[in-house]
Amino acid sequence: MTDLPPTNDPNDRPAPGAVDPGGEPTPEKTGRPVGDEPGRPSEHIGRRSFDHWFGEKDRNGFIHRSWMRAQGFSDEVFDGRPVIGICNTWSELTPCNAHLRRLAESVKRGVWQAGGFPLEFPVMSLGETMLRPTAMLFRNLLSMDVEESLRGNPIDGAVLLTGCDKTTPGSIMGAASVDLPTLVVTGGPMLNGKFRGCDIGSGTAVWRFTQDRNAGRMSEADYAAAESGMSRSNGHCMTMGTASTMACMAEALGLQLTGSAAIPAVDSRRYSIAQQAGQRIVQMVHEDLKPSDILTRDAFANAVRANAAIGGSTNAVIHLLAIAGRVGVDLTLDDMDEWARGVPWLVDLQPSGKYLMEDFYYAGGLPAVLREILPLLKADAVTVTGKTIGENVANAERTDWSGQEGEPAHPVIRPVGNPLGSGAGTAVLKGNLAPDGAVVKQSAASERLLQHRGRALVFSSIEEYDKAVDDPDLDVDEDTVLVLQNAGPRGYPGMPEVGNMTIPRKLAEQGVEDMVRISDARMSGTAYGTVVLHVAPEAAVGGPLALVRTGDWIELDVPARRLHLDVSDEELAKRRADWQPTVAPTDRGWARLYVEHVTQANQGCDLDFLIGRTGSAVARQSH
Questions:
Q1: What is the DSSP letter of 121?
Q2: For 81-191+233-422, CATH number?
């Protein structure tokens, strides 16, 4: 055996039957003619799982096969068939993903049916509802887990089982860095929440009910009753929050089977399409159809436009930037703003609209939306189906949905000629307060506040704000601009979902439901309001946000894409001279590595040393 790591370049493969000093399988090593086994074609020549693990006859091959036999696998699984890694983010600490082990069984059935060898393995699971200080802190760690697990094991193709917010982008980022054939299977949304005969949505109802309780419009008993009725089944948020948005983004990018993003988690069709995914990934390995073939600049343009049409989460901006960075696609905030302009807002879903993901699925799901906006899409972008996105949605149907018998049909998905609005996607703002950009979700904002000038009320931490929010003497009115500092990727760390600061109690009691809020934080995709987020550079690294003082005038002009701090350059220079950086909150472990290497929001908040694609080259032998 050579000391050099083996290559996966098919151009470097020896002719069948040749003795290869680099460690490739040969008749001399395996004891059988490579590529000529009964019933097996020669196409598995170059299959990494066979060439470097299960096809070797020497000591290492003995070890690899023998230990796998301990699980009861028979001889034929080592014959060169595609090994499919089922990368599972299941965890009971991630309620959104608690059903993924069952979903994995459906994928396995499909893999076996197509002649593959499925092997399930766990990776870090990120529960948005439980994990502190924020799941976003660990998205890049999950991506590393996925990347190294795929590269270091005998895997030829991967199925990513995801659901909760960060599990989908984190898993995609890791798989994209390895660039083996990959297909995403999301877990699906919960059934609609129910309270007092009405549908209520994950997150969105929480923000609204909490505000109503604080204002005295909702009793504690009703608040508790709503809690028990909101989450009624397995699955992720059934609003168009980040989980639902990223499921749609995976489909719009071409990484998920057509029509699968919106199927409810407990619908039998969710398990049926997972089985189809298992079948398809085996064919993708035979076709050598990889993420780098799918995740093109055109694919990202399609995803950005789809996000605008569905009224998707602002968090998609950060995740799409990070995924693009992994595959070497040049994607900027300016690109995303340009692509989203003028796209009709078609999906009437909470938090921006009325309905929920279950209704969205019955109305036609994402394929119906994509067909409506097909003239705006790059229709020839390739997808995991092996067909283009235009071919995938050519026959999609939009159905007006009625939730109750006898009720008139409601257009959950509007026709393109009758949208809810135009250009209501995520807008990118720039100015002296956000030189590198900030974002606002137009469909979730109040129209009257899209152009606004007000005095700043500044808080250096979310804890400081939480202590002040109930103070009846707080110096605030409905025109005040609430400013939160030090909640960005380095400052918190991890950029938590605290940007949609609760309306101060004194104003809530007066009936105020929205205010302009500005921060370097994120907000939940289930949240709403005129909330400016992702201000870059963040306060913790000395961005202009760190220099804002209470009483400063701030101008927001969303149509003009402008965010301006009305303070002179000379005064800002004086403040900068007095500014002191915040101290890192930890000196050890992952948090330290993250703070030292995380990029800013306009670059996707990835770690600087993870940007780019490393590939699937097999490492040196372990024994």
A1: E
A2: 3.40.50.2300
Secondary element (H or E) of residue 252: helix 242-253
Predicted TM-score (pTM) of this structure: 0.91
Run of H or E residues at 531: strand 531-536
pLDDT for res 485: 97
pLDDT band at residue 582 using 50, 70 and 90 as cut-offs: confident
pLDDT surpassing 90 at residue 504: yes
What is the four-CA torsion angle of 296, 605, 437, 348, rounded to 10 degrees?
70
Minimal CA–CA distance to 346: which of 328, 364, 334, 326?
Answer: 364
DSSP 533-560: EEEES-GGGT-GGGG--TT-EEEEETTT
Note if the bond before 537 is cis, omega within 30 degrees: yes
Q: Could you tell me how many residues make up the chain?
A: 623
What sign does the dihedral 201-516-514-414 (CA atoms) show? negative
Distance CA 170, CA 136 (A): 9
Q: Of 110, 85, 102, which is closest to residue 163 (Cα–Cα)?
A: 102
Cis amide linkage into residue 408, ω under 30° from 0? no
572 φ, ψ to 5°? -65, -35
In whole angstroms, give the CA distance from residue 348 to residue 420. Answer: 7
Segment (H or E) for 111? helix 100-113
Greatest pairwise CA separation for the chain in angstroms: 85
- pLDDT for the residue 20: 35
3-state secondary structure of 506: helix
User: 84 and 116 in contact (C-beta within 8 Å)?
Assistant: yes
Tell me which residue of 165, 168, 101, 160 sits closest to 129, measured CA to CA. Answer: 165
Q: Are 18 and 26 in contact (CB under 8 A)?
A: yes
40 pLDDT tier (thresholds 50, 70, 90):
very low
CB of 275 closer than 8 Å to CB of 305: no
How many angstroms separate the CA atoms of 368 and 385, rounded?
A: 17
Token pair of 62 as six digits:
């003995």
Closest CA to 526 of 170, 210, 187: 210
Cis ω for the linkage preceding 122 (within 30 of 0): no
Between CA 127 and CA 291 the distance in angstroms is 26
Report the alpha-carbon distance of residue 352 to residue 525 in Å, rounded. 10
Do the strands 434-441 and 426-431 form a parallel or antiparallel pair, or are they unpaired? antiparallel
Within 13 Å and on the Cβ side, how many CA atoms surround 5?
A: 12
Q: Which pLDDT score is estimated for 587?
A: 81
The predicted structure's pLDDT at residue 36: 38
Positive or negative torsion for Cα 155, 159, 163, 167: positive
User: Residue 9: CB partners within 8 Å, gap ≥ 6?
Assistant: none
- The residue written with tokens 């696609």 in the block is 329
CATH of 426-578, one of 3.30.450.20, 3.50.30.80, 1.20.140.10, 3.30.559.10: 3.50.30.80
pLDDT digits (tens, 9 = 90+) for 532-579: 999 999 999 999 999 999 999 999 999 999 999 999 999 999 999 999
Q: Is the dihedral of CA 552, 558, 559, 562 positive or negative?
A: positive
Only one residue has tokens 């007066």, namely 510
Query: Contact, 150 vs 174, CB < 8 A?
Result: yes
Q: What angle do CA 486, 164, 425 make, to 5 degrees?
A: 65
Is it true that 81-191+233-422 and 426-578 share their CATH fold? no
Delimit the domains of the chain by residue range.
49-78, 81-191+233-422, 426-578
